[in-house]
Every structure is written in structure tokens, then in C-alpha cells.
Amino acid sequence: MTKLLYYLFFLYVLLGQVCTLSAQDISGHWEGVVTTGKKQPQFTYVMDLNSSGEAISGRACSSLKKNNLEACFELSGIWEGKQAILQEIKQLSPESPEWCLKYMTLKLTSEEDGLVLSGDWHADNCKPGTIRMVLTSGLEYKEYEAPFSIEGKWTGHLSQSDRNYGFYYQVHIEEEGRGTSFIVSEDNGGSATHALEWSFDSITNQLNLQEPRVIEKTDPHWLWCLKHGVFDLRREQHKYVLEGAWSGPLEEKNAPCAPGTIYLEKPILTKVELNKID
Fold first, then answer.
1. CB atoms within 10 A of CB 253
2. Could you report the per-residue pLDDT of 51-67, keeping only the tens digit for each?
3. For residue range 222-268, what is the model confidence (pLDDT) as tens digits?
4. pTM confidence score
5. Which of 154, 195, 193, 192 lies closest to 178 in space, CA to CA?
6. Taking the CA of residue 194 as centre, how many other CA atoms within 13 Å lie in the half-sphere pointing to its CB?
7. pLDDT per residue over 156-173, tens digit each?
8. Residue 277 has what pLDDT?
9. Please, which pLDDT band fits residue 3 given cuts at 50, 70 and 90?
10. Most exposed among 35, 83, 146, 238, judged by the fewest C-beta atoms under 10 Å?
11. CA 272/CA 218 separation, integer angstroms
12. Are 172 and 180 in contact (CB under 8 A)?
């Protein structure tokens, strides 16, 4: 059966100490420079970090003011031994061009100008360099659960009573009762994208889905079922789940398909608020 794709995020953290600063919290606003060699210009680099336990997260921006260049990134990291391992995991802005996503190995030291994170960085297809950051102010870190919305991408699997194999199934619920679904067969048929119509009853926590037509498919000769059903919404530890039975006719024919079940899920999202404390 096609494996269900989960959106899971793991942080593997190791205990570490930094000389006499073994209990140092590095949450705060850091400012400094990034270099890529002696003959290359220095980029201004700022980081807003939060260290929650041994995990590190935050945002960073790199800029070269004289050329009016700037890019911002999402950061994630861990403590390993006596150093911080940080990585820019996603470019937040601009959409283009793409900048180097740096992987940094930084030591924490106490120097004349304050607490300092410094070390080397490298990135795929980019010249490596060094980085030095100074803590300039602390941060208050708050994390909130994002309000639930039925809209968005849900992924899971679909079964059919006359098949001994399953299907990968994904729906993208859009505004105004519209959307698309995507299905992949482990056996014959390949994959297909369907138009989607939906409505959600917030009182009963039920989603009504219907596929009115096939938009595109990889096998032009394969006929797909146009599915509809009512699916119950529930909440589990780190995700929302939609589950229920489906039925429907074969496209271009009046013959009913063998019915089945659908399971869909999406992660519970959180929002982070970082407030500077001067």
C-alpha cells in the first residue's frame, strides 16, 4: 500500500556546555558580520534567536546596504558539545534570487564587547566563510497555536473495497468552496487531479467533499471514480484528522464505483512572537 506521507519535524538535540557559561541562554537579538573571504565584501548579519531547552530556533537577515541587497531566513539548530549548530532552513524573502542557505558552527564566548557567537559557515555551491555575532538585547519568546482553518493541504490515503492495494490521496481546500484533489495508484492508472467542491459544518464538525470532474491524468485511457462523502473532523495530539466513507460513479459512465474510505490529516500549526527586551 502506498505509504502515507506525514509532515513531521524533528529536532535532535545533544547536551552541551560552554566553558563557564554552561547555563547560558542565547535567546536574544544578535548583530554582526558574515564574510566570504578577504577580498569579498562583509555582509551585515542579524539574528533573533530563541533557545527553548536545548533546541534553537529563530530568524536571520543578511544585507549589503551599499548594494541595496537583503535576504531573510528561518533558522533552526541544536547544541552539540560546546558549540551551536545553526542552519538557515528556508529563505523567507525575497522570492528571488535564491541566496546561500548557510550551515554554521558557532562557539559561544564572553569577550570585551559582550557575549559572542563566532565560527565558520558553509553552503552548497557557495564559497565558505566566517561569522561573528554579538548579543545586543534579549527577547521575550511566545508561541501560540494558530487558529484552526479547514482550508489548506490535507494528505493521507484512500481505500476501495474491491482493491487489495491503496491509493495516496491529497486534497487542497481553497476559498469559496473550491479546491483540488490528487490521487496516486499503487497499481494501474498512474495519478490524477480532480476538481473539488466542499462545504464545512462547524457545528457537527463535518466536511462534505465532492469531485465533479477530472482535471488531468497521466493515463488518458484510465477511468477514475468521482468521489463524494461526508468526513468527520477530530483533533489528535499534533494534528487534525478527517476520516469517513466515500462513494461515487466512474467518470464518463453511470456505473457506480466500489466504495471505500478516506483518511486525511494536517499538522497543528503554531505562531511565534518575538518581542525585543532592551
1. 9
2. 877 789 999 999 998 88
3. 999 999 999 999 999 889 999 999 999 999 888 999 999 999 999 98
4. 0.54
5. 195
6. 24
7. 999 999 998 899 999 999
8. 58
9. very low
10. 146
11. 41
12. yes
Task: Single out the residue of 243, 224, 151 nearest to residue 183, CA to CA.
Answer: 224
Instruction: Give 125-131 contacts, CB < 8 A, sequence gap 24+.
Output: 125/100, 126/36, 126/100, 126/102, 127/36, 127/37, 127/40, 128/36, 129/34, 129/35, 129/36, 129/37, 129/40, 130/34, 130/35, 131/32, 131/33, 131/34, 131/35, 131/45, 131/102, 131/104, 131/106
CATH superfamily of 28-141: Quinohemoprotein amine dehydrogenase alpha subunit, domain 2 (2.40.128.120)
Do 152-270 and 28-141 have the same topology in CATH? yes
Residue 165's CB is within 10 A of a number of other CB atoms, namely 12
Q: Which carries the bigger pLDDT value, residue 254 or residue 107?
A: 107
The CATH label, of 1.10.3210, 1.10.150, 2.40.128, 2.60.40, for the domain at 152-270 is 2.40.128
User: 69 φ, ψ to 5°?
Assistant: -115, 140
